[in-house]
Each structure stands twice: as structure tokens, then as C-alpha cells.
UniProtKB/TrEMBL annotation:
<dbReference type="Pfam" id="PF13193">
    <property type="entry name" value="AMP-binding_C"/>
</dbReference>
<dbReference type="InterPro" id="IPR050237">
    <property type="entry name" value="ATP-dep_AMP-bd_enzyme"/>
</dbReference>
<dbReference type="InterPro" id="IPR045851">
    <property type="entry name" value="AMP-bd_C_sf"/>
</dbReference>
<dbReference type="GO" id="GO:0016878">
    <property type="term" value="F:acid-thiol ligase activity"/>
</dbReference>
<feature type="domain" description="AMP-dependent synthetase/ligase">
    <location>
        <begin position="9"/>
        <end position="355"/>
    </location>
</feature>
<dbReference type="InterPro" id="IPR020845">
    <property type="entry name" value="AMP-binding_CS"/>
</dbReference>
<protein>
    <submittedName>
        <fullName>Acyl--CoA ligase</fullName>
    </submittedName>
</protein>
<dbReference type="InterPro" id="IPR025110">
    <property type="entry name" value="AMP-bd_C"/>
</dbReference>
<dbReference type="Pfam" id="PF00501">
    <property type="entry name" value="AMP-binding"/>
</dbReference>
<dbReference type="InterPro" id="IPR000873">
    <property type="entry name" value="AMP-dep_synth/lig_dom"/>
</dbReference>
<feature type="domain" description="AMP-binding enzyme C-terminal">
    <location>
        <begin position="405"/>
        <end position="487"/>
    </location>
</feature>
<dbReference type="InterPro" id="IPR042099">
    <property type="entry name" value="ANL_N_sf"/>
</dbReference>
<keyword id="KW-0436">Ligase</keyword>
């Protein structure tokens, strides 16, 4: 983040009133962002948090997050960023993290601090609430040369268990962008996903290096995003498929037009489904839409624009610049085009390691490559197609069922908005696929209409899939539960399966 920090200082000098960060309650120019970041450095140093010290950051999307982000580099401390979308954090989790990291400071909000309800005698660290902290009285801190605190630790959403700490060199967020030598009107970029996620943090650094404006919403609601778009001339929106679906639902519900200022949408997280792509093409025929696939461990991997969707149906695109992808079988042998295997990625922007977990690091890292845990295949032109997570593969007898293949077919059925397929363990130690369906129309269904829709879905699957791939059960849900990364929470659905089967007497 050395270049990001320098870019902010450069824009503060060249165009001081240029907007750097905006949320619902504040607008920071580049000169104010630069000054406030330096006051944060002064506050950190005055409190004894100097080069190499550990600081935990638990902040939602708001202007203070970016102030703190810049200050973390300038003070040369080691920040541990936690995702506020993870609802199950408790005081015990913070205390355990402090013990593991020896961090002496937690920077958060009054809401989160009150929620944690730390007892006075059990807090071996300081808690700073950005709502209460007055930086105006703090001295300008001396900016450190990057030495000890050259890493950032990001905690993942925990899709396969407890959140893992991913150790990233700060240099991984400097994308080598050339400074913009022209003072043009800044472009406003709305970021919806949590800034504590790698994708959002990288995009933030990219925007600030170019002298553009980061727009943040403190609320995870489509009407809040729409209000920001109406108040500001936003041209670019970055969000996940679930947020995009909710946004389109909201616009249709209130019978509103899409904001005319927006000309580019980027989706990251789970790849866009074919059903969602069709809906986008129908509702936003002239909008540029980019689908980006990546992971916290390696960053962006592939990208595909809407003008390629028709020719490469179902693909998440080709590897981006500086990224190499190969598909590997269970014997670690590289596979030819068309064969499904685990996706391995080589990139200069990879993680260093999992925090304090050498065993997980050695399993995930293989030489220059990082194993993603995702399955897929490459076609002859180098386009990547995903087939789900390695640990989500359903084993039925001697067959392997890739949930993504079944989900793609389910989404072809009229009226289905989204579908998730998981494996259900049976007493005979065999798995069977079961499907959770979100219908486009959320009107209450009678027992008869629900049974009729299930028969329609299963009949369609029987025509399009092998017998062992057809879901053994179909359940309708109002919403697909999501984890902190905005991906389908398959663990939650597995728990629901047990409850639903007990209710049905299975």
C-alpha cells in the first residue's frame, strides 16, 4: 500500500478538494483524508502502537475505515481486519484473537463495542470507538518507513469452518497503476461488499491510486444504495450476485428505472448464474457487466464481460493478467482441457500463509501455486468453468455429483430464481442430492400447488440429468441463506435438511 499512501498525499497536494471517500453521513476530500490518516498515526504512536504492533480492526463500511486503512500502513503496524458481516462474533472470539496476536488495540464502533460487552477486568487491550474518538487534538504522526508491519491479516468468512487469517503482504494491494497526470473529474465508485474483504480492499486501493472517489453505504439495503446513486453521480458499482439480485428485486418492486449515471457493474464472489445473467440482459440491455471470480488467498483469477456470455455460456472467464491457472487431479497431475479437476493458481498477488497455521498453509500451497479448493475445467480457448467446491462434491455409489451442474439445470426451470444443491447423508453411508429452491414469485403456495411445482421440477431434471443426479428432495425457501462472503451457506442448509426430514417423517 506504499503507492496508495503516496497517491493520496499526491492528490491532496494537487487537487485538495477532490472527493476521496463518501458515505451517507460524511464526505472526505483527499486533503482531509490525508490529514485524518496522519492524525490516526499520531494517536497510534502516542498510545505506544509503533512499528510492528498488532491492531485489530472491526469496522463496517464507513469513511473511518479508509482513514484507518491508510494509517495502518503509515504507522507500520500490523492490522488484523475482521469482517463485520460475520454475525457470530462474540467477546470470546476477540479475546482469543488478542491472545493469539498479542494485539493491544481494537478499533471498532460503539455499536460493536456494546455488543461485545467486555467486562472491565477481562480486557487486556484498549478499545477505540471511531464514534467517540476526537482526532482534532491528536498530533500529526511521523510516517514510518515500511519495515516490520509489512503484512495485513484478513479473516475469511469461514465457508469451511472457523474464519482463517490470511497473511497478505501490503505490496499485494499495489497494482502498479501509473499515476494519473491529468486533473479530470473523479469517477464515483459505489462499493457494497464489506471493505474488510480482499476484493473490496483491493478495489479501494485501485480507486484511490487513480484519484477517483470511493462511495460506501453504511447499510446493506438496496434502497440505501439507490439513495446514494440519486445523490451522487455514480458510474461504477461493485457488489456480489446476491446483492445484485436483491437490487433488481427492489427496482422491480418499486417500479423504478435503473440509475442512468451507472454504466458499469462488477460482480464478484459466486459467479453469476445463467438465470441472473438472462435477467440482467433483459433489464439492463445496454449496461456493461463484468463477472469476476477470485479467492481471498490469491485475489482475482478470471474475468468475463457480458459481451462474451452468449459464446461462453456458463464460463467465469479467462485468467487475468499475471495469473496462471491449471487443473489438477487427485494425484496432483495437470489435466488437459475439458477434464474436471481442482483449480490451482499462480500469481504475484498470492497470500504469504495462513496465520499461525503452518499445516493448513502446507496443504494449500504447492510450490508457486495455491490450491483454491474449487473444481472446474478449462476449454480449448482457456475459459474456465466452475463445478463447485471440492468438499461439496456429492458421492452417490461410484458416481460423483457436482452440485453446480444440477443447480444450472434447476435454474432453467420456469419461475426458479435460484437453487442450491447439497449432499444429504443417508443411514447406508451414501449421499443423495437435495435441492433448496428460491422461486421468483414469492406468493404463498398451497399444498397442492407446491406439490405440482415439485413434480414439474423433478420431471424437468429427469429429462436433463442422469438418474443419480436428480434431487431426492426439493424444498422451497424464501431466501437462500448467505455467509459473510455473500455465498450460499451450505452448512446452514445442511442443518435445515435434518429439521425438514424430521418434520416430514423421514
Amino acid at each position: 500500500m506504499y503507492e496508495v499512501s503516496n497517491s493520496i498525499a499526491r492528490w491532496a497536494s494537487k487537487s485538495p478538494e477532490r472527493a476521496a471517500v463518501i458515505d451517507e453521513h460524511a464526505t472526505l476530500s483527499y486533503v482531509v483524508l490525508n490529514e485524518r490518516a496522519n492524525h490516526w498515526v499520531g494517536a497510534l504512536h502516542a498510545a505506544g502502537f509503533t512499528s510492528g504492533a498488532g491492531v485489530i480492526v472491526l469496522l463496517p463500511n464507513r469513511v473511518e475505515f479508509i482513514e484507518v486503512l491508510v494509517a495502518m500502513f503509515r504507522a507500520d503496524v500490523v492490522p488484523f481486519f475482521m469482517n463485520t458481516n460475520i454475525a457470530y462474533y462474540k467477546a470470546e472470539d476477540i479475546l482469543n484473537l488478542v491472545a493469539a496476536t498479542h494485539a493491544g488495540l481494537l478499533i471498532t464502533t460503539r455499536v460493536f463495542a456494546d455488543k461485545m460487552a467486555f467486562g472491565e477486568d477481562e480486557v487486556p487491550f484498549q478499545v477505540w470507538c471511531v464514534d467517540d474518538l476526537d482526532l482534532s487534538g491528536q498530533p500529526i504522526g511521523e510516517i514510518s518507513s515500511p519495515r516490520h508491519g509489512t503484512d495485513i491479516v484478513l479473516f475469511t468468512s469461514g465457508t469451511t469452518g472457523s474464519p482463517k487469517g490470511i497473511v497478505m503482504p501490503k505490496s499485494a494491494f499495489d497494482l502498479g497503476l501509473q499515476p494519473n497526470g491529468h486533473i479530470m473529474k473523479p469517477k464515483l465508485h459505489l462499493l457494497v461488499k464489506p471493505l474488510a474483504s480482499r476484493g473490496s480492499m483491493t478495489t479501494t486501493c485501485n480507486i484511490l491510486q487513480e484519484g477517483n472517489t470511493v462511495v460506501l453505504s453504511r447499510q446493506s439495503k438496496p434502497d440505501a444504495w439507490l439513495n446514494l446513486m440519486e445523490r451522487h453521480d455514480i458510474s461504477f458499482v461493485k457488489l456480489g450476485p446476491s446483492e445484485l439480485m436483491r437490487w433488481l428485486d427492489h427496482l422491480e418492486r418499486i417500479r423504478s428505472e435503473f440509475p442512468p449515471s451507472v454504466n458499469h457493474i462488477m460482480s464478484n464472489g459466486e459467479p453469476l448464474t445463467n438465470a441472473l445473467k438472462s435477467r440482467i440482459k433483459k433489464l439492463l440491455p445496454h449496461m456493461r457487466v463484468t463477472d469476476l471470480y477470485g479467492t481471498s488467498e490469491v485475489g482475482a483469477i478470471t474475468m468475463i464481460d457480458d459481451n462474451e456470455w452468449a459464446a461462453k455460456d456458463g464460463s467465469c472467464g479467462r485468467p487475468i493478467f499475471f495469473v496462471s491457472v491449471k487443473l489438477v487431479d487427485e494425484q496432483n497431475q495437470e489435466l488437459p482441457a475439458g477434464e474436471i479437476g481442482e483449480i490451482w493458481v499462480k500469481t504475484r498477488y498470492r497470500m504469504r500463509e495462513y496465520y499461525q497455521d503452518p499445516a493448513a498453509t502446507s496443504v494449500t500451497c504447492e510450490g508457486d501455486y495455491v490450491k483454491t479448493g474449487d473444481l472446474g475445467f478449462l476449454d480449448e480457448q482457456g475459459y474456465l468453468y466452475l463445478r463447485g467446491r471440492k468438499h461439496d462434491v456429492i458421492k452417490w455409489g461410484g458416481f460423483r455429483i457436482f452440485p453446480a451442474e444440477v443447480e444450472d439445470v434447476l435454474r432453467e426451470v420456469s419461475g426458479i430464481e435460484d437453487a442450491v444443491v447439497i449432499g444429504n447423508h443417508r443411514p447406508e453411508r451414501m449421499q443423495e442430492p437435495v435441492a433448496f429452491i428460491r422461486l421468483r414469485e414469492q406468493e404463498p403456495m398451497t399444498t397442492e400447488s407446491e406439490a405440482k411445482k415439485k413434480r414439474e421440477i423433478l420431471a424437468y431434471c429427469e429429462r436433463r440429468l442422469a438418474r443419480y443426479q436428480v434431487p431426492a428432495e426439493v424444498w422451497f425457501v424464501k431466501e437462500i441463506p448467505l455467509n459473510a462472503a455473500g455465498k450460499a451457506d451450505r452448512r446452514e442448509l445442511a442443518q435445515r435438511t435434518v429439521t425438514l426430514q424430521q418434520k416430514d417423517g423421514h
